[in-house]
Design a protein that fits this description.
Layout (H helix, E strand, L loop, with lengths): L13 H15 L20 H10 L8 H8 L3 H14 L2 E6 L4 E5 L3
Antiparallel strand pairs: 1-2
Length: 111
Amino acid sequence: IFIIMGPKVQQKTKEQKMAAAMAGARAKRKKWNKGKMHEKINAKVLFDDEGWQRLQAEVPKMKLITPSALVERLKINASLARAACLYLAAEGKIAAVEQHHAQMIFTRTTA
């Protein structure tokens, strides 16, 4: 009885075996999330003419005024929003409800 064997297969090198093992380990695990992506907005650090007009027009009509709200609405950075809140409060256009070192809350003035 004769067994006919196929041609001899080329043996893989150690590097090739290691690369194949690493690829297999990477492929079998599925990652469901890609980590939290923080949305980067290009906030202004100084007021331009259009932004200043919007501050003067819109903000005194808002019911709840916080630096966070100004950042969202006017696309300015937080330090500029804090300074703008203090400026409008000093002018008497908005009234302070609560001033804390972490969060300042203002409201519109009712005349």
